[in-house]
């Protein structure tokens, strides 16, 4: 069975009708670096770094450098996308002197928190830049809502680069900087963001939460969670189109990218890069190599002309 799985994972990533796609792994903990490689992921599409910050003491620059280096070395030359701290919301590091606001999901989280505690952000950026000599790395900024935040973050990254060069450290000078498109503001204004970013990653978990106004952790409203909602479809489509217009690659890294049916929906919307927990890679690969992209687009077009439930749409896509 293992050799069969290995042979299957080595097959080209192409749909039945010949459209290419790439599968990346999400890593939340170090144990997943190896799993991404074993699943033959094209790289780590989302390295969540929150785990480093959840202890009582915050990690220093060297501790972070070693963690990022471990991910890069595990991937043996395949790119690693490191997301800067996405704390706040439900996960506030105990070592941070920041108080939780009245509505954490709308409070000081993600990049907002990093820009409020810039010394912590600088340490993380320096650690990533230093690790970049060990293999290809990209920086991913979470929770963008305003281009000014992006300008600010980029200035800090440039500053850190110069600081390290002054220290005589060797770093990758052209390290790409991308952004998570996961708030309604970033999705609706994606044509403002795309020209300023080297790549975009759609965070469907937060995008769906904020667009449909359903708390992603509240079971009572989870019945409203619908990736086939016209608002979600049109936003993802706009992001894909902006990516093409501005030559800015788009990946989906939210949970939808690890779901056999939803990846066919994303394929129909023009998505070709998917990042998911490594355990989901075999099933997603099977779903996509057995799919005809043209058929998926037809099913989606029919659904949009006469919307039915998202569940119906996903069922139909899975049966195609
Ligand atoms: C997302 O929001 O879809 C995402 C990938 O990030 P997280 O789940 O860590 O918020
Ligand atoms: Mg998110």
Structure in words:
The chain contains 14 helices and eight strands. By secondary structure, the chain is of the alpha/beta class. The chain has an eight-stranded parallel sheet. α5 (118-131) packs across α6 (147-166), α11 (260-268) packs across α12 and α11 (260-268) crosses α13. The chain is globular and about 55 Å long. The two termini are 27 Å apart. The site of phosphoenolpyruvate has 9 residues, from α9. Phosphoenolpyruvate (PEP) is lined by residues 48, 86, 182, 203-206, 253-254. Belongs to the PEP-utilizing enzyme family. Its cofactor is Mg(2+).
The structure class reads alpha/beta
Strand runs, count: 8
Distance between the termini: 27 Å
What small molecules are bound in this structure? phosphoenolpyruvate, magnesium ion
Characterize the overall form: globular
Rg over C-alpha atoms, rounded to the nearest angstrom: 19 Å
EC number: 2.7.3.9
GO cellular component, one term: cytoplasm
Subcellular location: Cytoplasm
Catalytic activity: L-histidyl-[protein] + phosphoenolpyruvate = N(pros)-phospho-L-histidyl-[protein] + pyruvate
Primary descriptors:
binds magnesium ion, 14 helices, binds phosphoenolpyruvate, 320 residues, phosphoenolpyruvate-protein phosphotransferase activity, alpha/beta, magnesium, 45% helix, metal-binding, single chain
């Amino acid at each position: 069975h293992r050799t069969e799985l290995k042979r299957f994972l080595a097959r080209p990533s192409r749909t039945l009708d010949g459209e290419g796609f790439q599968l990346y792994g999400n890593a939340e903990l170090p144990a997943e670096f190896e799993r991404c490689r074993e699943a033959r992921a094209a790289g780590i599409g989302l390295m969540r770094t929150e785990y480093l910050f959840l202890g009582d003491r915050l990690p220093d620059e060297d501790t972070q450098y070693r963690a990022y280096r471990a991910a890069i070395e595990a991937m043996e030359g395949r790119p690693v996308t490191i997301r800067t701290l996405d704390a706040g919301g439900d996960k506030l590091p105990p070592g941070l002197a920041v108080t939780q606001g009245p509505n954490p999901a709308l409070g000081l989280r993600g990049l907002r928190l990093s820009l409020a505690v810039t010394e912590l952000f600088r340490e993380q950026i320096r650690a990533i830049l230093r690790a970049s000599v060990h293999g290809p790395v990209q920086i991913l900024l979470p929770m963008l809502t305003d281009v000014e935040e992006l300008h600010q973050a980029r200035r800090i990254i440039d500053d850190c680069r110069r600081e390290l060069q002054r220290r005589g450290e060797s770093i990758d000078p052209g390290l790409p900087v991308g952004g998570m498109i996961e708030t309604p503001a970033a999705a609706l204004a994606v044509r403002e963001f795309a020209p300023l970013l080297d790549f975009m990653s759609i965070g469907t978990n937060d995008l769906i939460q904020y667009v449909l106004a359903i708390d992603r952790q509240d079971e009572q409203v989870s019945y409203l969670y619908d990736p086939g909602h016209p608002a979600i479809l049109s936003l993802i489509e706009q992001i894909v189109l902006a990516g093409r217009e501005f030559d800015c690659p788009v990946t989906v890294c939210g949970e939808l990218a690890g779901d056999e049916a939803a990846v066919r929906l994303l394929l129909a919307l023009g998505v070709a890069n998917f990042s998911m927990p490594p355990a989901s890679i075999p099933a997603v690969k099977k779903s996509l190599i057995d799919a005809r992209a043209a058929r998926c687009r037809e099913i989606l077009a029919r659904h949009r002309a006469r919307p039915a439930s998202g569940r119906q749409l996903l069922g139909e896509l899975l049966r195609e």
